[in-house]
Specification:
The chain has 337 residues and is α/β, with parallel strands linked by helices. It is built from 13 helices and eight strands. An eight-stranded mixed beta sheet has the order 7-5-6-4-1-2-3-8, sandwiched between helices. Helix 6 packs parallel to helix 9. It binds uridine-5'-diphosphate and magnesium ion. Its main location: membrane.
């Protein structure tokens, strides 16, 4: 029986990478004769001609497909769009810039064949990142793993293969704001790892600058932990205790030795210090409230403008597995091409 494998590739301004990607991927096909592959490029609102490149590649190669989102929804949304589309026996997620070597997918498939439902690519080096970035990433993972329900590793990204069973579970998580790496971990299943060397970006520049990475990290923590919210009750209690103790000391001092007026600096320090702490507390509340606000609107995670593939596949995609789910509903849009 022929098994099917969908390879989901989110693309944002990857016009210059796509043909390289296809050329690197093509030799894989004859290596796995028992499989039908589809490479699904998800154009995430690129400003360049990425989608016309995808269209051309899809016209030339039967195994290349494309999904065009209406605008840039972010990598997580693009991955979700691909996940919603793919109903193959296995789904692979990888970047378009060839930082994830296509050859590794062969190893993924081999492990999957052995019965592992989740095969995760593990980076053996992160030479491509700056030292400052690595340091910050390290701090993030330490904090996150300490306070979150899910445990993440710095060496694992979205580059992975999941079995259809896992993909079905993952599709049940319909939250709007999606930190995929955390969601992958949240669904469970014991992963096996395949080590790989991160390649250099074939073309263009990374979309993840420091600010975007910082926001991504915030998303990761707020998506999977409420510790930053709960910490304030304890911190408040501690501050209250210290404050009461100090007050008691001052009152005793006044009773025993009379009133001493100096204390201006102490007062100022306390006011400034505690206002700062309070504002951080409010800020953290805000992070969560903002996310609740975005989530309750129940807007779809992404919207699809058009798709390119052969007509059979398009018909299949027009019948989503879970018609009630919000993102799947997006498929029903008449724009389906
Ligand atoms: N990407 C995307 N939408 C975005 C940003 C990035 O689909 O808004 C894609 C991008 O085209 C690439 C992958 O996500 O295939 C990883 O992005 P990038 O290479 O810029 O990040 P890095 O490898 O530096 O983490
Ligand atoms: Mg990259």
């Amino acid at each position: 029986m022929n098994k099917t494998i969908s390879v989901i590739v989110p693309c944002f301004n990857e016009s210059g990478s796509l043909s390289h990607f296809v050329d690197r991927f093509r030799p894989l096909l004859p290596r796995h004769p028992g499989y039908t592959f589809e490479v699904v490029f998800v154009n995430d609102g690129s400003a360049d001609d990425t989608f016309s490149r995808i269209r051309a590649l899809a016209a030339a190669e039967s195994w290349v497909k494309g999904i065009n989102l209406t605008r840039n929804f972010g990598k997580e949304a693009a991955l979700t769009a691909g996940l919603d589309y793919a109903h193959s026996d296995a789904v692979v997620f990888m970047d378009a810039d060839l930082q994830h070597p296509p050859e590794v997918v062969s190893d993924f498939i081999a492990r999957w064949e052995q019965g592992h439902e989740v095969v995760v690519g593990r980076r053996v080096s992160r030479d491509t990142d700056t030292r400052a970035y690595r340091l910050l990433a390290n701090v993030f993972y330490r904090i996150s793993n300490r306070i979150s329900d899910v445990k993440l590793s710095e060496h694992e990204g979205d580059f992975r293969l999941i079995d259809r069973k896992v993909a079905d579970k993952l599709r049940q998580l319909r939250e709007n704001r999606r930190f995929m790496k955390g969601l992958f971990a949240w669904v469970g299943y014991e992963p096996v790892f395949v080590e790989y060397e991160v390649g250099r970006r074939i073309n263009g520049v990374s979309s993840f600058n420091t600010w975007r990475s910082w926001n991504f990290a915030l998303e990761g923590i707020t998506s999977f932990s409420t510790v930053p919210l709960r910490i304030w009750s304890y911190l408040g209690g501690l501050v209250l205790l210290i404050g009461l103790g100090y007050l008691l000391a001052i009152v005793l001092q006044a009773i025993l030795y009379g009133v001493v007026t100096p204390g201006y600096v102490t007062l100022l320090a306390a006011v400034v210090g505690f206002s700062g702490v309070l504002m951080i507390g409010i800020g953290i509340l805000g992070e969560y409230i903002g996310r609740i606000y975005m989530e309750v609107k129940q807007r779809p995670t992404y919207l699809v403008k058009e798709m390119v593939s052969n007509p059979l596949e398009t018909a299949q995609a027009a019948q989503p597995a879970q018609p009630e789910s919000r993102s799947a509903a997006a498929w029903g849009a008449p724009a389906d091409g």
